[in-house]
Each structure stands twice: as C-alpha cells, then as structure tokens.
Amino acid sequence: MVNLLRHADRSERSLIGRAKWVGVLLLGLWAGPTAALDLELLAALPIKGLENAQPSGLAMADGVLFAVSDKHDHAICRIDITDDAAQLEPFITFNAPWSGTWSTRLDFEGLTYADGSFYLVSEACLRVLHVNERGGGLEWVTPDVRGAATAAGLLNVKNARLEGIALLAPNHFLLAVEREPRGLIEIWQDEDEDEPHVQAWVTDETRLELPEPRAVDFTDLHLDAGGLYALARNADAVTPITWSSGQFEELDVWSFRHVVEDPAYAYENQTYGKAEGLTMDDERVYIVLDNNQQPRLADENDRRPQLLIFARPD
User: Fold this and answer.
1) What is the rounded CA–CA span in Å between residue 212 and residue 234?
2) Are 174 and 11 in contact (CB under 8 A)?
3) Cα–Cα–Cα angle for 133, 139, 142, nearest 5°?
4) Rounded-to-integer distance, Cα 271 and Cα 251, Å
5) What is the C-alpha to C-alpha distance for residues 129 and 199, in angstroms, rounded to an integer?
6) Strands 284-289 and 55-61, sheet pairing
7) Is 247 in contact with 271 (CB distance < 8 Å)?
8) Per-residue pLDDT reduced to its tens digit, 171-204
9) What is the pLDDT of residues 200-250, one digit of tens each?
C-alpha cells in the first residue's frame, strides 16, 4: 500500500532539538500579537466522492493523503488529487471494538499515521483507535481521558472536545481539545508500568487575532521533522508551536484568511472558521474545510467541502 514512515523517531529528535533554543515559557506569559505570514495558495479543490462528506483529520503516507469524516464511523478515506478536484473515497473499512463508552457514534475528528498504522481520535469516546494499513489490529490504545481533562477545566462544550492528534513517540500521544477552553492532553506509557499517564492543560493564551464572536481553538495537530504545528480554525491560521509538558508557545502565524474570505472560495456563512484537518509534506501544506453542507458564495448550488493546498514556508 504505502511505504512505512518514521514520524515518531524523527519528531522526537526534532522536539528535543527545538527545546534547546526555545526558552522556557510558562503558560500565561505572552507577548503581543504576532504578524501573520499569508500562505501562498497553490490550489483550492472541491472535494467529491463520499456522500455527506464532512472531512476532519488529515494524514499523509508516502505522498498519499488520507482523511476521516466525522459522519463516517467505519472508514479511513483516501484523497486522490486531480487538476480540478479532490476525490474522497473509503480506502479502509472496519468495525471498531466497543470503547467502553455508550455512544451511538464514534465521531472521528483526528488522524495520524506512523509505521504502518493509523491512529484515529474519537470525540465521542475520548480515546484513540489503532487501525493497521490492512484494516486489522483494531484496538483502543489510550484510556478515556475524561477524568484528567475535566480536572484541568477542559471538555466544557458539547461537540467541542477532542479534535486533533500527534504521535510524539511510540505510545506517546498529544491530543488537542477544541475550545472554551482549548487545551492539550498528553498520554504516555512507560515500559516498566502497566498503566498509562494522562495529563491535561488549558492553552487558551494566544497571540492570534480573532474576530468576534470566535473563540481561540485547535482543530488539528501535525508533527514532522520540522516540528509541531496546530490548526487554529477560528483564526484561519496554522501556528508552529513548541510544547513540553505544560510549556506552550506559538512561534509564528501562517494565515489563510485571505483565501477563505475570498469570494471565489468562501462559504455564505462566515461566522466561524471551517478548517478541520491539517497535514504537510516537505513542500506543501494541506488543509480541509468542513462546510457542514453550507453553500459557497460563488455558487449557492455548490455545497462541497474543499481541500486547500499551500506552499510550505521555509
């Protein structure tokens, strides 16, 4: 199917390296707003194929894009890019084992890939599901994070809970909590211990500028050799960040607001942001817009989500 990636090893080295030159910044100690870099748009493609597609998490493996849709609980989808569209179709189908949570839906909101395995974060179950690239190996690999998250003051808004995932190292996950407040949850398991560790933090402090009535948020995470990145949907921005056990800093702001507000690409309702998924390769930044079936400004009959492709800044 795809060549195996080594995200975890490369990413762990990258985070350690970045920590050497980034000073310790405790939560709450922030400078003023950061001037944004406008991302260069390479393509804006309507997403077609999957019925009622509401794409959320994005991941890449050997140049192939994959996604989850929060209305499709039994599929990991592949995205094939053509000159004028992005074709979204189920690629791996599965039936997840019982999560221990009584929920009618799994609501997958985040996706990452490493070493032949996909990891999907369920907003409904508050856990991470492992699926190998053949559709087997189905296993919930993290505990329910509700206790640690609520103790930290997170998960206060229904349907605004877990939204993104990064694999920092084997058996070491970072999950994003969407908003009000937004936060990060770290889950890891030491080799000599039977139970995993779960810690959660509020990370509402920001340098981002947001129009009213938008709240600062996370909707995805991405990790590669270049570092750790967060998708801030309501700011229409990607932020390179540093993170180390409660210490969080937004290093820069890569804005795509000039694109999502352009009448050629914008949707009619612009009260809140629509970017739900983020991934990158060495040259490009990929972002999916989930429009919840809302029409576009340029064509009221076009209700398709979109895939935005940008040049990756140096």
Assistant:
1) 10
2) no
3) 115
4) 26
5) 19
6) unpaired
7) no
8) 999 999 999 999 999 999 988 888 999 999 999 9
9) 999 999 999 999 999 999 999 999 999 999 999 999 999 999 998 788 999
Polymer length in residues for the chain: 314
User: Quick one: tokens of 181?
Assistant: 């407040």
Q: Domain 7-311 has what CATH class?
A: mainly beta
Question: Can the peptide bond before residue 181 be classed as cis, meaning omega within 30 degrees of 0?
Answer: yes
Cβ atoms of residues 47 and 304 within 8 Å: yes
Tell me the domain boundaries of the chain: 7-311
- Mean pLDDT of all residues in the chain? 89
3-class secondary structure per residue, the chain: CCCCCCHHHHHHHHHHHHHHHCCCCCCCCCCCCCCCEECCEEEEEEEEECCCCCEEEEEEECCEEEEEECCCCCEEEEEEECCCCEEEEEEEECCCCCCCCCCCCCCEEEEEEECCEEEEEECCCCEEEEEECCCCCCEECCCCCHHHHHHCCCCCCCCCCEEEEEEEECCEEEEEECECCCEEEEEECCCCCCCCEEEEEECCCCCCCCCCCCCCECCEEEEECCEEEEEEHHHCEEEEEEEECCEEEECCCEECHHHHCCCCCCECCCCCCCEEEEEECCCEEEEEECCCCCCECCCCCCCCCEEEEEECCC
> What's the pLDDT tens digit per position in 68-102?
998 899 999 999 999 999 999 999 999 999 998 87
**Token digits for 49?**
């194929």
Strand pairing of 64-69 and 117-122? unpaired
On the 0-12 / 13-18 / 19+ scale of CB atoms within 10 A, 98 is exposed
Given a contact cutoff of 8 angstroms between Cβ atoms, the answer to whether 67 and 277 are in contact is yes
**Within a 10 A sphere around the Cβ of 312, how many other Cβ atoms?**
17
Question: What phi and psi, each to the nearest 5 degrees, are found at residue 12?
Answer: -60, -45
* pLDDT number for residue 25: 36
Q: Give the C-alpha distances (Å, rounded to integers) separating 108 from 124, 137, 234.
A: 8, 17, 20
For 135-157, what is the mean pLDDT? Answer: 97
